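Hi,

Apologies if this is the wrong queue. I'm a grad student, and the batch job for Alpha/beta hydrolase from Fertoeibacter niger produced an output file that my downstream script rejects. I'm not sure whether the problem is my script or the file. Here is the sequence I used:
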Amino acid sequence: MMRQITSNGITLMTQSFGEAGNPAMLLVMGATASMLGWPDELCAALADSGLFVIRFDHRDTGQSTTFAPGGADYAVEDMADDVITILDGYGIARAHLVGMSLGGYIAQMVAVTHPARIQTLTLIASEPLGWDEAPLPHISQAFLDHFGALGTLDWSDTQAVAAFLLESDRLCAGNAAPFDEVRARARIAQVLERSDSPASMFNHGALTMRQDWAGRFREISCPVLVVHGEVDPILPPENGRAIAGGIAGATLVILPGIGHEIPAGIIPELAQRIAVHACQGPG
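Support response: The file is valid. Your script probably expects a header line. Output copied below for reference.
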């Protein structure tokens, strides 16, 4: 079920799975990624476990409000507000929140600023909100080199854009299984078909924050599950360990051979872990 939610001049495209009367779970994807970053199979598996699952296109992705490349004037806090806008649009008082990468950062913001709205938190391939200790390892040099090609990418050449995105997926992949190029190509084709301005997704790379969030992830009080790939090249697992170490009672799961990704092979296990975590959270 597709549904548009509009607030303060911003339209967010959402899609739901399962029965609306079931406990709600909102999935928040990472930077540059639309709702398609959440595999259909994962959404369906979570819905089959008795959850009402919602995924959505961030600003500048998919069918949500899109600004011209380089023309976005919003901050990360505005993307956190979008989460509450979606919950309000669906009439959901409290929800389980699942965030990946930047989506996990945003989810932590929401858990800190709107604790009454969040039942449980699952953070996948994320970094701690307002980390204030020794620097944590981040994006690999190979990925930085790849992103260096953005300045010369011809966005009018669909094949070139698809090839760039495919290489991004390849660099994100771990070694638990061979890279599934067929699956990646199919998703990328869907992403490009749903976007009028694919270049705009990279507006996320210039986002800033308005507030000082130093140390605030430690304020999170709801049950937290941290899931991290063992060989994540974007946010290495030290980031997940830092989150779990700073939040009382948090559970940490390190997935062997997994990168910054949700490959098909881990979907059954991931869905089960998320659903069990949600069921153990407060009612």
